[in-house]
Amino acid sequence: MENKTQIIGFDSHRVGVQFDPRKGRGAVSNASGRFEPVRRETFDDGWDVESGLETGPEKLKTEVQVEHPKRIITRNQSPDISFDRSINPYRGCEHGCSYCFARPSHAYMGLSPGQDFESRLFAKPDAAALLEKELADARYVPKVIAMGTNTDPYQPIEKTWRITRSILEVLERTNHPVGIVTKSAMIQRDIDILARMAEKGLVKVALSVTTLDPKLARSMEPRAASPAKRLETLQALHDAGIPTAMMVAPIIPALNDSEIERILEAGKAVGINQAGYVMLRLPLEVRDIFRQWLLTHYPDRYRHVMSLVKSMRDGKDYDATWGRRMRGSGPYAWMIGRRFEKACERLKIGTNRAELRTDLFTAPAKQNDQMSLFDLAC
């Protein structure tokens, strides 16, 4: 029997829900996904305590499965985001951010958006080959490819799998523009590629800095780089001539909203030239996962945080309306927007997105293409 240390709390549907916090993980539960025919929840039957066997919760080990998709470029038609295509080298994210809006996608794999999302991961080792094939299509029209929009391309397993680097090698070889968002210092490993692409106007990088408080960061984003390492990484990218931006995301009412100006000041000190922000989003299962995390780590702020969240979402936990889901609405959301704008104006930080070049793109040769006359002559 698995030993567990349970915290009794509640979520929006049930009273007496038993949370199961694990060291190094963000979610404090592992409820079944919404497509599962049976709902499974852990509970403490008191057996371990009575028998003297209770040893505390075991650490969750990260498991990685290989996924073989048919295509690697994902398309979207969302009118409130700046890109229409993206690449996700991995499914799930070991960083374990309690608020991650990508968590519900794990339900499509028959897994929990909770602890499964950050411990049972999928890697796509064929990504570079698939990308080269898609870019070679005669109908392909180059536009900026976004990376890090769903799960982090530099999460810890990238150190071993190196899928993100293999993708960048294809993009550099074809002069294809890319925008990257990450919370990881590991991106410094690829400065050699990124610096060369930056010289041609083909890359921009944004680091998400949610807080400058290491204690808050460690509980909220347990396996992401510390705030200090993220600022150090921005400095290294800037020094290498790579356009850098900072994402203050998400802004969580009554938790990190007081830090907006200080975060931007820290970013300006390390050379960022752009910044943006996103308000906390709680779609589908993320609602309960974040509520449980908040109740576990900051119970004294629970009611205040959720009250302000609802004030921005027409009395609900989330509003998915285009144009409002990223910013919210109402007086509190308006105030956050004005504070962010004023701080950027004072620090001379731009809020408009940098444009990347697409005119340098050179499609790779198809694998079945005949060699050119030049090749034959050689």
Question: What characteristics describe this protein?
Answer:
single chain, 378 residues, alpha/beta, pyruvate-formate lyase- activating enzyme, 7-stranded mixed sheet, 3-stranded mixed sheet, 13 helices, 12 strands, 14% strand, disordered N terminus
Tell me what the structure shows.
The protein is α/β, with parallel strands linked by helices and 378 residues long. It has a single domain, classed as pyruvate-formate lyase- activating enzyme. The protein is built from 13 helices and 12 strands. The protein has helices spanning 47-51, 115-119, 127-135, 158-161, 163-173, 191-199, 214-220, 227-239, 260-269, 286-297, 302-312, 331-347, 373-377; strands at 7-10, 15-19, 63-66, 73-75, 85-87, 90-91, 120-123, 145-147, 178-182, 203-208, 244-251, 274-279. The strands form 3 sheets. It has a 7-stranded mixed beta sheet with strand order 4-5-8-9-10-11-12. A 3-stranded mixed beta sheet has the order 3-7-6. Strand 11 (244-251), helix 9 (260-269) and strand 12 form a beta-alpha-beta unit. The longest helix has 17 residues, at 331-347. It starts with 6 loop residues before the first strand and ends with a helix.
